[in-house]
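name: query_chain
kind: protein
chains: 1
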Amino acid sequence: MCNTLWFPVNRVLQKKACQEKIQVVYLYYCVYRVYRVSNKGMLYVRIIALANQKGGVGKTTSTINIGIGLTQFGRTVLLADLDPQAHLTYSLGIPAHELEATIYEVLRGQTTLEKVMLQKYGVNILPASLDLSGAEIELAAVPGREFLLREAMSTLQEFDYVLLDCPPSLGLLTLNALTTATEVYIPLQTEFLALQGLSKLLQTVDIVKKRLNPTLSVTGIIGTRYDHRKKLSKEVVEKIQGYFGAILFPTLIRDNIALAEAPSFGQDIFTYRPHSHGAEDYRQLCQEIIKRGRIDGERDAAGDGSVAVDPG
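structure:
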């Protein structure tokens, strides 16, 4: 059967007109590749840092499930673990302590992203290790230390999204994430004191935008651990909306035990419990992220990407 089909197809391909069309298509493809990887390879890559100096707000959970959720809509995704605790790495069932090289070696210039990149659940992963805990001191005297991650990622060209899971601090690793990213998402628990100290993070983002990365802006607030039964949760959401307005994603991540259980099995929420509230919420959030990306692109083109908020 294959031979029967091949001969007529081959005769068509041998025709001069067909070959010329193939060459034209290939030429368009080459032009597209050059255009895509211009501007250090990041023109069409949305690089999003998920940051909050508070721990336990859902940064890692959101990074994993947004990343894997986006692949369900045909997007290519890279997850980068910048937390010395390597929670993202362990949460995906990757034994960080057994890896020969991680993003730590990349930052030190000892290897490249391609050599440490792993694949799982349809996403590419830059794993971390406990060695990152010494990066703050070891890299402190390195010239251009704020741009180490940006330089390492300068050749990225195969991804639609890069999600950076930041540590719960505003140190050198988070600074590297902010100088690399084009957007910042801030996960916030819809609980008491959610906004406490957030002004420091916003000030840091503003400084990085002015001095190091003019393309950076806060484009999303993710409400996590929402419980519609609690009056407090609703009041906190109203308060967040009052400060941030439209950049708060309409979808709130409900408090869901499956989200807490999934990492212990080394799985994302879609693999662990695909029909849970957590999976439903993150799937809907991914749709909003994709849609909002187009709006943000238009806003950035107009030169209005700043967020001026002081929650105190």
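note: DSSP finds 14 helices and seven strands in the chain.
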